[in-house]
Amino acid sequence: MYHHSAGVTRQTAGVAAGVLEPMAPDAEAIVFQRCTWCGTATYHRLLCPVCQGSELRTERSEGVGTVRHSTVVHRNTPAARNVSLIEMAEGFVIRGRVMGPLIGIHSGDRVRLSTAKDPVRGEPVFQLVDEPYRAWT
Fold this sequence. Notes:
- The protein is 11% helix and 34% strand.
- It is built from 1 helix and 8 strands.
- The strands form 2 sheets. The chain has a 5-stranded mixed β-barrel with strand order 4-5-6-8-7.
- The chain is elongated.
């Protein structure tokens, strides 16, 4: 049988509290967690999805990523909007909105963080880094 010592309990509580609280006053950054055991990057988790470790350190993302999936949503909004899954350069995936024409956002497009929080929806907003060359289809 395994019993936690008082020092381990305090240390774990401090790590978990660091996951839930924002790291810095900079509102234009995405804060994510990295497992200290296996190095996996995660977003808003209490445990590592790979090794189930609870020792996660908080890091700041550079804000550059790639669109993995994008869809147009028409519900609960007066106008159509896009919802995209962005794979960040650090290795975690986040849901957000990409600015631009709704039909012009595709998988593989490179994006950069524009605003960490949309004032209406509260999700990050990205902008296209460069217009990729697209062949005639």
